[in-house]
Structure formats: structure tokens, C-alpha cells
Write a structure and sequence with these properties.
This protein is of the alpha+beta class. It has three helices and nine strands, in the order βββββαβααβββ. The strands form two sheets. Strands 3-4-5-6-9-8-7 form a seven-stranded mixed beta sheet. β1 and β2 form a beta hairpin.
Length: about 120
């Protein structure tokens, strides 16, 4: 639930993970829980790579938080490698990590990560 801070509404968010680029320590991406939206959202991809942030529905992240942070880390590694090589990057709509298939669907504000059933 949002709190009032100095008369301004501030949403509750909690950073649950921070993922750093080993080759460029200045490139840090956080995974933030936004309970009022029912999402976990990356923060830093747009800043460092000029790409949309990745959102993970709360109902997908909570039961498998280690797996899902691993999937986000996998995506960040691919983004950072393309950036290091000065190659263009685009999100693949379907991909596989550790024998699990995932889908990335573009929305206006971010890329929504879902498990491909």
C-alpha cells in the first residue's frame, strides 16, 4: 500500500536482488518488487542498454525466485555481451534456460516474462 511522504504518495517497493556485470561493474540491474502492481521489475536495463525493462508476474516469481532471477541474469548476460561487442540486441520472443521455455511479450512500458506452458 502506498505511503504518504511529505504529502506525496510513495509506492512500496523492495529490492530483492542486484545483478552486476562482471566485465563492467558500473552496470548494475536491480530486481524490484512492486506489490501494488503484482510485478517484479528490473531497474537499470533502460539506463545502461536503452532497452525496455523486464517484468515478471508475482505469481511466477514467488514460487521460483531463484530460477526466475537466474532467467533474468541469463537475459542480462546476453544484453551485456551484445553491448560489449557493439552489436545490436533485441529481445527474443521465445527462449530456453535450463530446459524451461519462456516467452517475452512486449507491452508499452516493459517486456513481460512468462513461462511457456
Amino acid at each position: 500500500m502506498p505511503e504518504l511522504f511529505g504529502g506525496t504518495e510513495v509506492s512500496q517497493e523492495m529490492i530483492i536482488a542486484t545483478i552486476g556485470n562482471q566485465n563492467n561493474p558500473a552496470q548494475v540491474v536491480e530486481i524490484v518488487h512492486l506489490p501494488e502492481k503484482g510485478l517484479f521489475l528490473t531497474r537499470g536495463i533502460s539506463t545502461h542498454f536503452n532497452l525496455k525493462e523486464i517484468a515478471v508476474p508475482q505469481n511466477l516469481m514467488l514460487p521460483a525466485i531463484q530460477e526466475m532471477t537466474g532467467v533474468v541474469s541469463y537475459l542480462l548476460e546476453r544484453i551485456a555481451t551484445a553491448d560489449d561487442l557493439n552489436l545490436p540486441f533485441r529481445y527474443e520472443p521465445e527462449f530456453e534456460v535450463d530446459d524451461s521455455r519462456f516467452i517475452l511479450q512486449e507491452s508499452e512500458d516493459f517486456m513481460m516474462l512468462e513461462r511457456d506452458e
